[in-house]
Design goal:
With 380 residues, the chain is mainly α. It has three domains: 117 residues; 92 residues, no CATH class; 128 residues. The protein is built from 18 helices and no strands.
């Protein structure tokens, strides 16, 4: 371990020759059985230098990315062969390791889990999801958010592929393990957020938990609306509604102009799900559309033109544009007063946002308004 720690330390040296030699040693060592386990032992060593532990985690992640997938040619894997024994040991311990290391290292281990899961989940890693779900009960928000980030990364692939029997098999397996505990965590976190409403540190963590849950929900319902969520639509929508209109000055930094705040991040994720439902004309969502549409444009009216609000503003624009552009939802916009409110309080004020950010969304929106309500738009 001391030798490996020294080698990794030398890869960070400003001395080019020393750094190059150390990198060669690591590259050669990566071909040896047990090397990845040694790296993980160093990552887990709390007494080791934090920078070296971080560098070890990065090298571990990169090696896994290069060599874990055995379907790739050996040359593409840089002649690295990870033994089955090492694979089993790594997967047995990786989730627990992720939950015990500092945040920067946690991010690297989380990414490594996602890389392995892309190849092995769920057939060759059937205890991954149960281990992640078990951590939902952790009292440490960094642990909960860590496993949620990992799950979000794993499930994101559900949105990137075409429907197939194989995909649905994986989604059904995933739903059977996560849908109930995830809904429980959603409700529990909303309650906890109320309890720490005056504590910015704790509340910020809860907002992130809610955002990650929302992102995971998006992936789980992307291909089709599962029966479980159809049955619990009112419960889920109740929480999403609460946070779409949520505001708390404790989490608002009036001096920050560029970086998106935790509330905006959560609201952007919520609107992403709303967009998905209206795009697919999900019947169970129909009763909620009028109320959510009002909430979305009220949210837009409340936002400034500062860059930190760009994401939630653009997401809201896209949601409204979908509704305006579809015959199915025309009744929502048939009142002249409604259209006047949208244009006067939303479209025109937000024209001052950077043109490259909003021109496409609002351009389409205005085109759709003209098509659906030509007489009104001509008089704007």
């Amino acid at each position: 371990m001391a030798s490996l720690e020294q080698v990794i330390s030398e890869t960070l040296s400003p001395n080019a020759d020393l750094r190059k030699n150390a990198e060669k040693v690591l590259t050669d060592s990566s071909k040896q059985q047990g090397f990845l386990l040694q790296l993980l032992q160093l990552v887990d060593n709390a007494s080791a230098n934090a920078t070296i532990r971080q560098a070890a985690a990065v090298f571990y992640k990169n090696t896994v990315k290069t060599a874990w997938d055995e379907s790739k040619d050996l040359e593409e894997r840089k002649n690295i062969v990870i033994s089955q024994q090492d694979r089993v040991t790594i997967k047995t311990n990786l989730v627990e390791l992720m939950c015990t290391v500092p945040p920067q290292i946690q991010a690297q281990i989380s990414e490594a889990i996602s890389i392995i899961a892309e190849v092995d989940y769920p057939e060759k890693w059937d205890d991954l999801l149960p281990k992640l779900v078990a951590k939902f009960n952790s009292p440490d928000p960094s642990v909960v958010n860590g496993v949620l980030k990992t799950a979000d990364s794993i499930f994101r692939r559900f949105c990137d592929v075409n429907r197939s029997d194989a995909l649905y098999k994986v989604i059904i397996y995933t739903l059977n393990h996560i849908q109930e505990p995830l809904l429980k965590l959603l409700m529990q976190t909303a309650t906890q957020a109320d309890a720490c409403a005056n504590d910015p540190v704790q509340l910020n963590a809860k907002m992130e938990t809610l955002r990650l849950i929302t992102r995971i929900l998006f992936s789980l319902v992307y291909q089709d609306l599962p029966e479980f969520y159809e049955d619990n639509m009112a419960t889920v929508m109740g929480v999403l509604k609460k946070y779409l209109e949520y505001n708390n000055p404790v989490l608002v930094d009036n001096d920050e102009e560029d970086e998106q705040g935790p509330i905006d991040k959560l609201q952007s994720a919520i609107i992403d799900i709303l967009k998905l439902f209206v795009t697919r004309d999900e019947e169970p969502f129909q009763p909620f559309i009028p109320e959510f549409t009002t909430l979305v444009w009220n949210l837009l009216i409340s936002k400034t033109t500062l860059p930190k609000h760009d994401q939630v503003v653009v997401m809201s624009m896209k949601y409204l544009n979908i509704l305006v552009g579809r015959q199915f939802y025309k009744d929502l916009f048939k009142e002249t007063s409604t259209l006047q409110q949208i244009v006067a309080n939303i479209v025109i004020p937000n024209m001052t946002i950077r043109e490259r950010v909003v021109v496409n969304s609002w351009g389409l929106c205005v085109v759709n308004l003209k098509r659906k309500q030509p007489a009104f738009v001509q008089n704007i």
